Structure formats: structure tokens, C-alpha cells
Amino acid sequence: MNRTIAGFFWISLYLLVVLVPVFLMLLPPVPSGRGFWLEFSVALGFVGLTQIAVQFILIARFRRVTAPYGIDVILQYHRQIALLAVAAVLAHPLIIVLDNPSRLKLLNPLGGNWASRAAWVSVLALLAIVVSSVYRERLKLDYERWRLAHLALGVTAIVFAQLHVSLAGLYTNTAWKQVVWVGTAALMVGLVVYLRLLKPARQAAYRWSVAEVRAERGGTHTLALQPVGHEGMRFLPGQFAWIKLAGSPFTLEEHPFSFSSSAERPGRIEFGIKALGDFTRRIGEVAPGTRAYLDGPHGAFSIDRYPAVGYVFLAGGVGVTPIICFLRTMADRRDPRPVLLLYAEKSPDTLAYAEELERLRQTLDLEIVYVLEEAPDDWAGERGFVDADLLQRRLPDECVRRTYFVCGPPPMMDAVHAALLERGVPEAYIQMEHFNLA
Hints:
This protein is α/β, with parallel strands linked by helices. Helices cover 47% and strands 16% of the residues. The protein is built from 13 helices and twelve strands. The strands form two sheets. A six-stranded antiparallel β-sheet has the order 4-3-6-1-2-5. Strands 10-9-8-7-11-12 form a six-stranded parallel β-sheet, sandwiched between helices.
């Protein structure tokens, strides 16, 4: 299916899933003699609840769903829309009380009725999700424990919200409405079962083994995996996968990393991993033969999705990983198209893959511009950061017709994006990898 058509289809289905339960609950018979603001608050509650329920689909990593957009975009949307959904849910009781202050007793967790108590449990679970997610790093929450708590709190919020609606009974007052409402809750819980049990069980049949862990420059390591009992994994250059390094695929500890090896060599795949956290700092200690399991490939950041007359790659720090995958793949394919690479790092010692990049110059029509933040006195290349002035100097006029791939720290990506638009590069020619998936 064409990506545009597929994207339109999934957006339409998403809106249908979010809005249909609201309309179904409002079909007769419904309570009579209720004012606009009361009904409006109920509609907000239903919309917020269905939005939260749909988030279970977004985090289940269905490749058919994420393919038109890229899972990085999907997860960014998940974070933003979840906050709006929680706001809608919180507005529901506030509007009810403002409409009639005598209902204030319903906000007392020790008073009210069983329906309001169930609502309290759901709201507290949602608030715990928001606080622990937004402030996870400040609270120094362990990633794996946070994921487990996030999942448990999400299920709690949905179950008790569904219980609240059923106990209130005003909009689920017929058997078929009860079936729809309970069925929706069962579907969401079923997705959790799929993600945490059924999907890992399938991964067990496609085990991998660590073939090598190779040190690169700048605290980066290459993790090489070889398939055990299967032919490997086909992926597009620039995509990524979640990796589990454990004896069982049911572990909660998994991390996303970009492929760094050529997409033309699926029988042995490699990942570029830079020491930025507790897990990544231990990569160099992983022993050959360690079991591994993969969930992938994922991502829309790929030269195969955007054919062009030539490319400009802009990489900062660990953002060079998908770029080296691009270049290795193009070398294996003997791709003659011109490429300009602007690679920003702190110092010469932190330029990962520098030696191989120089070798690739001999194979590809490749021009490389290194940009160092802390350049030595004898450095003849660019200094500072990739900004509008540097792009003005280094981008020939004909590069406006090329496709741009940008991957690096968020401040660099924002600055590059703005500078490219100012230079006259069409938005459709700029592809960004926002690699914040936690």
C-alpha cells in the first residue's frame, strides 16, 4: 500500500476508534433533563478515556501502523496526546462541580459513592504516570522499573475508569452498551498480554548470539550479532531495533539502537552504541556468545524511502550511527550518487568510524566536513557547531535539490532544520531522526 494512503487509512481508523465509543454511549436511551455543561464534561471524559486506551495500540509497535510515519513520530505523538487526554479526564469532574457545587462531595475520596471512588483510583494512577514520565530523569527512576510501573499504572487507570463508567451506569444502561464498554477494556488489556507475553514468545524462535563487541572511538562500541537457526533480519538502511541481551525474551530490559552495518548483509548485523547511560556503559563487557533477542526493524529514517539525486547527511555525536549504515549500504550497492557528510563531534578523539569514513571516500562520491567543538590548534577543518553560518559556507547551491538526513542532539537538529528552511530547502526534503524513545 502507498505510504500516503496507508497513513491516511491509519489516521482515519484512529479517529474512528477514538470517537465511535462516545457516539455509541450517547445513543438512546440516555439520561434526560441534563444541562449542556454536564453533558460536555461527560463527553470530555469519554474522549480522554478512549484516547488513553488507544495509547496501548501505539506502544505495541505494530509495524503496519508505524511504517507510514516512523515509530519515533508515533512515540512522540503518544507522549503529547497522552498529556492532552489526561487533561480532558481531569476536566470532567471539575466541570461537573463547577456546574453544580453540591456535587463537591464526589471529589472526596472517602465519601461519594463506589463510582466516584473508582474514578479516584483511575485519576491517581494517571497522575502518577504523568509525574513519573515527565520527571523520570530528575527523580532518577530506573528505566526498566519505570517501564513496568508505567504499564501497571496504565492498566490500573483503564480498568478503574471502565469500572467507574459501569458503576455510574448512566451511559451503559443497556446490555449492548455494556458489551461494547467491557469489550473495549478487554481489548486494551489483551494488547498488554500481546506485548508482554505473546510477542516475546515469538521472539524466542528468532534468537541471536553476540559475535563480537568492538571498541570504536569516543566511547562507542560496535555490537555484532549473528542469527541462531535462522537467516537473519532484513532491514532498511537507517532503521533500528530494540535489543534484549538476556537468556530470556521475556525480560523487561530492552533498548533501541540503530543498525550500523550494511543493509545488504542481513546474516550478521551490527549496532553502534555510545556510552551514555548505565546499560550502554556496560556494552564493552558483554561476552561473545551472549544470547540476544530483537524487536524490529523499526523506523522511517531511511534513504530507501526517499530516493534522490544526491544526499546531505548531517550527524552529531551518536547520530552518526544510522549515517554509517547509509554509507556502508551505498558502498555495497556501488551507489554513484553524490553525498555530502557534515559530522559534528567534540574532538578528534571522539569521531567514531573516522578511519572507515576515510576509506569510504575512496569507494563513494563522498565529501566529508568534520566540525569540532574543541578543535586542537593545528585543526584545519571547521570549528564550533553546525549552524546557519556553517551551512551557508559549506552547502553548494546544487545541494538544495538533494535530500537531507539529520540526526544528532535536539539543539543541533532544531538549529539545522531552521537553517535549511531559511536556505530554501523544501520541508519535504528534510528527514529528521528524533531518537528519544524512552
